[in-house]
Amino acid sequence: MTALPTAEQVWEALARIPDPEIPVVSVVEMGIVRDVQVEGPKATITMTPTFSGCPALHLIREQLEKTARSLGFADVEVKTVLSPPWSTDWITPEAKERLRQYGIAPPKPAHEGSGLIQIETNPTPCPRCGSLDTRLTNAFGPTLCKALYVCHSCKEPFESFKSV
């Protein structure tokens, strides 16, 4: 009889699941996976989506369950918890750097406890050249969590993560 993985090993496996909308970071690095419990043959994974209406929510749920089942768990429960609400402060520093390298300006620290999306009024640094000579062109980007900017120095458009 093969021993089932520990919670730590489940975390490691889940950390290999890319975020469906931003594949350079994982759902664990994004802070979406909140907890993993292993009790005998059952794995319970708790997640908090970035937004309750996240279009990738179903896919993330499926991937979490599929990954736990691939580790040998016959009984897998994926719980969605909305409180406390997800915060951009839960994104790991390594993931924020990979966002920047990918061309998305990472979020600044959120206003603790507000739970509201923050649209930056201070200059947002260009993730490509680092210039602060940038301008918000649209507060509503391709997803709810991003805004669109343009850099006047390198002339490149870019997305910026809103702080939540």
Which whole number gives the mean pLDDT? 91
Largest sheet: 4 strands, mixed
Instruction: Report the sheet-strand fraction.
Output: 15-25%
Count of β-strands = 7
What structural category do the secondary elements indicate?
Answer: alpha/beta
User: CATH superfamily of the largest domain, called what?
Assistant: Fe-S cluster assembly (FSCA)
For the record, give the distance between the C-alpha atoms at the N and C termini, rounded to a whole number: 46 Å
Number of domains: 2
CATH topology of the largest domain: GMP Synthetase, Chain A, domain 3
Give me the side-by-side strand order of the main sheet.
Answer: 4-7-6-5
Task: Show unreliable segments.
Answer: none
Tell me the number of helical segments per DSSP (H or I, 4 or more residues long). 3
What quaternary form is this?
Answer: single chain
Return the CATH architecture of the largest domain.
Answer: 2-Layer Sandwich
Helix and strand run? HEEHEHEEEE
Radius of gyration: 18 Å
Characterise this structure.
This protein is an alpha/beta fold and 164 residues long. It has two domains: 7-80, Fe-S cluster assembly (FSCA) (GMP Synthetase, Chain A, domain 3); 88-161, no CATH class. 20% of the residues lie in helices and 23% in strands. It has helices spanning 7-14, 57-70, 93-102, and strands at 33-39, 42-47, 75-80, 104-105, 134-138, 146-151, 157-161. It has a four-stranded mixed β-sheet. A hairpin with a 5-residue loop joins strand 6 and strand 7 (157-161). The radius of gyration is 18 Å and the shape is elongated.
